[in-house]
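Supplementary notes (optional reading)

For those who missed the lab, this is the record we used. Protein: Alpha/beta hydrolase. Length: 328 residues.
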Amino acid sequence: MSSTELPASPTAAGAASRVHAVRVAEGERLRSVELPGLTLNVRYRPSGTPGRAPALYVHGLGGSSQNWSALMPLLEDVLDGEAVDLPGFGVSPPPDDGNYSVTGHARAVIRLLDAGGRGPVHLVGNSLGGAVATRVAAVRPDLVRTLTLVSPALPELRAQRNAWPTALLAVPGTARLFSRLTRNWTAEQRVRGVLALCYGDPGKVTDEGLLAAVEEMERRLRLPYFWDAMARSARGIVDAYTLGGQHNLWRQAERVLAPTLLVYGGRDQLVSYRTARRAATTFRDARLLTLPEAGHVAMMEYPEAVARAVRELIADRSGDGRGDGARS
């Protein structure tokens, strides 16, 4: 494994050119982790605070490590947090093997943790990232101290109507057709559509936040693999929903040993609020935070509430919320 610091500069050369126009919040840095057949971008917040426990944040479909920029600073005094761009998203290029399945993404997370020697970590995932984190916690319990899932993409018998386009995106050829049909849409139109779908109240997005999202959308649309990564990852979610046996995500949820925090939004249009009760009874050691006004990305809409719940989870796991950072 090799790791390269990526200055967020338009004039930077080599690997750093991939971060052109990528926003980096105050206190954040980016680095590129090179693994065989895989390169992952990692966003982190350096701090001199000793004894912090390691944490890894995993975003959802179409998201990136930027989705955690509101939550990470609220926990940086207790967590040595890193947020990863999954393969093909954010600044991470596509994987050499083209595997965008939930298992493929989980394998990327496991390889990152193994290579960095950071496990066990407090693992936090949203949507697709929640499904990925569930699989990681089930198959590699040695890597996970606690598990926090924000609107995790776990199989539903009756999917939300607004989630149907994601399933359709998984159909071969649909992504290319959609890209042609929407070629005249501006980046701002696309972003406003995503915000309306993902936020309980899109009005909570600041002008600066909207500008950053539009800039990021413009950057992504220039990537030659943008639609392919979206389509294949959507197909990976659909495939994961249909798997039976030991690979079924609910079966894997039953195997998770780590204390688990489940966060659900009452206005979530993509993951049904009804799923919260099943999840709370499926994970062995679970606690539930419901936010009636939140949508699909509670960590972006209500970061303070989510941070408080994560702190409580960590404190219960470690006894004092800080001593968990030490490793033997």
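If you only remember one thing from this example: The first helix runs from residue 72 to 75.
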